[in-house]
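FW: tagging you since you asked about this chain on Friday. Here's the raw sequence from the shared folder, copied in full. Didn't touch anything.
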Amino acid sequence: MACPVSHSVELNPGLLPLDWLLGTWESDEPGEGCFPTIKPFRYTEMLNFSHVGQPVINFMFNAFHADSKKPLHRECGFIRMQPGTNRVAFIIAQNSGLVEIEEGELTGQQLNLQSQSLARISFAREPHVQQISRVFQLRPDGRLEQTVSMATDNQPLMQHLRTTYRRST
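HL: got it, structure written out here
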């Protein structure tokens, strides 16, 4: 279930630098996922960024296996900006039992984030994620690109996911 976009409430002025994210985005081609401890895979994903007028953007990400359409990864949470700066924070809960805070900077229409805090359920599968970095960029062709890098207990930080999206609403 996606968070509804409220058309009757204005975007909080503090979030105007992030207005290019708002709406629903769908992968235009399957994204690619890889990591040394798993088989490479292809996935599709839908992103929804919405607001209700508060100084926060709500988001939900839903990924599916490209061939079987089986649900895969889910993330939901909130995006905040530090007033008067280009500092951005993502507060994220994942269906894998990982909860994270990523912080970074907005430069134009590119958002660079690094994990600041990670917590997980006590019975999370190993190896445990130790670090995440994420880049969102609105490309000149109007597509949104996301790259996610990850480090675990036994692997250094390296690219894990990459896909591009087209705006659907």
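FW: The mean pLDDT is 95.
HL: agreed, and The chain is about 0% helix and 60% strand.
FW: great, closing this out.
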